[in-house]
Amino acid sequence: MRKTALVLSLSLLSLPALAAQGVVIRSSELRAKPFMDAAVITTLAEQTEVTLLTSDGGWNEVRTKEGKSGWMRLLNLKVKSGAESSVSSLKGLGELGNVARTGTTGSSATTGAKGISKEDLASATPNEAELKKLDGYRASAKDAQHYATQNKLKAREVTIPAADVSTR
């Protein structure tokens, strides 16, 4: 029993070593929650070292050496070389940080939506209220003609492929 308790205690002490060490690659706000409108705790300067705790979509929870914890955007962080974590949610974070900075990981580059799961995409539905709001920004033909005249724009013939013609 004592031996089991000792092994368990030593295992718990080693848990912080499993967390990946990272560095801030551009000055970034540390937020209270993983949302752009969450309260800002502080701003971390470029090259600030942090411990990567967990991830949630396009966000990572981090802790600074001073003990401040909060959330940062995934692409504002880079895993330090040789400090890769065994935590599966942080695997590959170093390469993602390099994509943000250089546009390539050195082996291949892909384009896509980061931080959005397949389930999020599969269950996505249009927000009709926002679409109506966008329609409110549309210029009338009269306003467009006035703008064109004021800025000495000339009419040009543009062929629109059938698949792109709006049905609205």
At a glance:
The chain has 168 residues and is of the alpha+beta class. The protein is built from five helices and seven strands; from the N terminus they run H-E-E-E-E-E-E-E-H-H-H-H.
Give a structural overview:
The chain has 168 residues and is α+β, with helices and mostly antiparallel strands. The protein has 2 domains: 2-116, SH3 type barrels (Roll), CATH 2.30.30; 128-161, no CATH class. Helices cover 27% and strands 21% of the residues. Strands 6-5-4-1-7 form a 5-stranded antiparallel sheet. It has a two-stranded antiparallel sheet with strand order 2-3. The longest helix is centred in the N-terminal third of the chain and has 13 residues, at 2-14. The radius of gyration is 24 Å and the shape is elongated. The protein starts with a helix and ends in an 18-residue tail after the last helix. Mean pLDDT is 75; it is low at 4-18 and 83-108.
List the helices and strands and how they pair.
Elements: H1 2-14, E1 20-24, E2 28-31, E3 40-44, E4 49-56, E5 59-64, E6 69-73, E7 77-79, H2 93-102, H3 118-122, H4 128-135, H5 141-150
- Number of domains in the coordinates? 2
Strand content: 15-25%
| Structural class by secondary-structure content | alpha+beta
Helix content: 25-40%
How would you spell out the order of helices and strands? Answer: HEEEEEEEHHHH
The CATH architecture name of the largest domain reads Roll
Overall 3D shape: elongated
Spatial ordering of strands, largest sheet: 6-5-4-1-7
Assembly type of the chains comes to single chain
Mean pLDDT: 75
What is the rounded distance between the termini? 73 Å
CATH fold category name of the largest domain: SH3 type barrels
CATH superfamily caption of the largest domain: SH3 Domains
Number of helices: 5
Rg value: 24 Å
Report the CATH C-level class of the largest domain. Mainly Beta
Q: Give the tally of β-strands.
A: 7
| Main sheet: strands, sense, barrel | 5 strands, antiparallel
Uncertain runs? 4-18, 83-108
